[in-house]
Amino acid sequence: MSSSVQRLDGRKPDQLRKITFEANIAPHATGSVLVSFGLTRVICAATIEPGVPTWMKQQKVPGGWLTAEYSMLPYSTHERKSRDISRGKIDGRTVEIQRLIGRSLRAVIDLNKLGQNTLWLDCDVLQADGGTRTASITGAYLATRLAIQKLLDAKRIAENPLIDSVAAVSAGIYQGEAFLDLNYVEDKDAEVDANIVMTGRGQFVEVQSSGEETTFSGDQLQSLLTLSQIGLKELSSLQTASLTQQLLKF
Questions:
Q1: Residue 175 has what DSSP assignment?
Q2: What span, in angstroms and rounded, lies between the C-alpha atoms of 3 and 18?
Q3: Which listed site, 88, 97, 130, 228, has its alpha carbon 20 to 30 Å from 72?
Q4: Would you say residue 192 lies in a domain?
Q5: Is residue 217, in this structure, part of any structural domain at all?
Q6: Do 46 and 151 contact (CB within 8 A), yes or no?
Q7: For the purposes of burial, counting CB atoms within 10 Å of the CB of 244, is it exposed (0-12), middle (13-18) or buried (19 or more)?
Q8: Which CATH number fits the domain that encloses residue 31?
Q9: pLDDT, tens digit, 9 for 90 and up, residues 69-108
């Protein structure tokens, strides 16, 4: 796929940044992965603890629970970002992203099979260069799968509660053309921005798309979805390859 607009990093319109996964980066978590989408780097840690939230007990909801927290470390951006605790509240963007991570993972897990356990997902951005939420979701799935394997091996649960994989990627209209996996420079100046979450079997979990001070056509939206599906298929393959390598070590 060619383009009249030259991307600063030389990528083609339908090309992902370099994607890497480094497992077991946080040894005290049940499962963890350092995920890199180009210069964007996020530690995703899954911690499984016995017990479920009080509201589940009160409402007699069976099974377990999964929830997510997301944060950008102060040094992850060009200008220091204050910690939420120093401001006395969580900003709206943080709340939105951690809810998205939680929804994305709950879409591919059978919570009844998780037992009376809570799975915490902590996604901490070490370096931000666009796509931190999509990197977080993609890495959080891997951390979850590694954590689940430890529960299976310890016979704390009888069967794998994950029913599919999940990954996410961004796409956008930049200088009038559609591009996959936007870096920060492209993202901040994009006319249209989209974040797409999809399962390994190709089912959409969430489609977020918005015009940045402009509108966009149905054809433009379709071009973003098409690009995203290309990228998500590749991300799913990369997840599978990483897991195959890691699970052989268990």
A1: T
A2: 20
A3: 228
A4: yes
A5: yes
A6: no
A7: exposed
A8: 3.30.230.70
A9: 999 888 788 788 777 766 667 788 899 999 999 999 999 9
Closest among 191, 208, 223, 171 to 17, alpha carbons compared:
171
71-89 burial, b if ≥16 CB within 10 A, otherwise e? bbbeebeeeebeeeeeeee
Domains of the chain: total: 1
Which residues partner with 26 through β-bridges?
A: none
Residue 5 lies in a domain: no
In a domain, 132, yes or no: yes
Q: Computed over its alpha carbons, how large is the radius of gyration of the chain? A: 18
- How far, in whole angstroms, is CA 189 from its chain's centroid? 22
Q: Tabulate helix, strand, coil % of the chain (nearest 5).
A: 35, 30, 35
Phi, psi torsion values for 120, nearest 5 degrees = -95, 130
Quickly state the pLDDT bin for 248 (edges 50, 70, 90): low
Q: Count H helices and E strands in the chain, helices first.
A: 6, 9
Distance of CA 134 to the CA centre of its chain: 4
Cβ neighbours of residue 7 closer than 8 Å, sequence gap 6 or more: 13, 179, 186
Range of the domain at 75: 19-247
